[in-house]
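As a warm-up, study this chain.
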Amino acid sequence: MRRKGIGLDYYSHDVKASDDRKIKLLMAKFGLIGYGFFFRICDMIYDENGYYISWTEEDEILFAAENQIDRDKCKQLLDYCLHYSLYCKHLFEKYGILTSRRIQSNFLAGCERRNELKLIKEYCLIDPEKEMNSKSKLKITWINVDINTDNVDINTDNVDIMYQKEKEREKEILNYIPQKKNSEADEKEISKQKKENKITEEGKLFADHFKSLLPKSQKVTDGLLTSWAETFDELIRIDGRDPPEIYQVTEWTRNDEFWSPNFLSANKLRSRNKDGSYYYDVFLTKMLSENGKYKQYDRYNAPDDTDYSATDYT
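Now compare it with the structure written out below.
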C-alpha cells in the first residue's frame, strides 16, 4: 500500500542511461562512483518531494557520511553534475535545490493517477499541462515559493523562460563551437592581441610542454604556441577540465601508437570528430579503457609545481 505523501515508491529507469553523453562524461571522470552518486540522489528526490530535493551544507555532510565517500569528492561530483546540467545549475544557485527536466517529467508520469498535485512554480522546468496524458484527471495547483500560498492560476510563462535558459546552457556546454570572425585583417590583429592578453602563464607552460612532446623536426610557430596556450585555458575555463587530467590525456595520446602521428596540434583536444564528439573525450575514454584508471606518468610533473586552484580562469 502506497504511503501518503508527495514522493514516489518507484520510478522508471532507462536501462541505457549509461549511454547518455552526460553520464558517459561523469563515468569517464569518476567511474561507477559517479554513476552511483547521480542515481542515489535521484532516488532521494523521487522519494522525498518527488521532483526536487533541497541541498545544503548539512545535507552534503550527511550524504557523504551515509554513503561512505569523502566530502571533497562529494563536492567534486556535484559540481560535475551541475556543470553538465544533469541537475539544473540555475535552480541550485538560486534556491539551493537539485532537480532537472527529466526528473520532473518522470515524476509527473508517476502521478497521473492521482487527483491533485501541488507544485512550486519557481522550481518547475516543465509545463505539466503539455507533459500530461490527455486522459489524465490530475489537477495541478501551483504554490508560490516566496509567499507560500496556493495559486490556482497556471502561468506557464515562467516555466517556458526557465526551460529556455536551461536548454541554452546545455547547448553552450555540449555543443560549443567557436564563432568565426566576420572580417579578416583588422579583426585578426585585434583577436591576436586579445588572445595574448588573456592567456595565462599556465597556458604558456602547457604549450611549451606540448611542443616538447613533438618530433624535433616538427615546425612550431609562435602563433601555434599562442593557440595551444589558449586551448589549454579554454579546456579549463569553458569545458571544466582538470589541469592534471589534461596533461595525462595529452601525454597518453602523444605516446599512443595510432594517435601519435595524428595528434600534432593541441587544438585537436577541443575539436570534434565526425560523430560530433570532442577528441578530448575520445582520447580520455580510450586511455581509461586501457589503463583502467587514471595513470600518473612518471615523466609528468606539473610545470613549476603550479597551484592551479589559485588560478582565475573566469
